[in-house]
Amino acid sequence: MRVIGQQKVEIDFLKKKLDVGSVKERRKMVDRSNLSLSIRKQCELLGLHRSGLYYKPKGESDLNLELMHLMDAHYLEHPYKGARRMHVWLKYDMGYEVSQNRIERLYYKVMCLRSLLPGPHTSKRNKEHKVYPYLLNGLEVVRSNQVWQTDITFVPMAKGFMYLTAVIDVFSRCILAWNLTNTMDAETCKEVIELAVEIHGEPEIINTDQGSQYTSKIFTDYVSKLYTTKLSMDGKGRATDNAYIERFWRSIKYEYIYLNPTNNVMELYHGIDRYIKYYNEELRQRTLDNRTPMDVYSLAA
Question: What is the pLDDT of residues 142-165, one digit of tens each?
Answer without folding.
Answer: 999 999 999 999 999 988 999 999
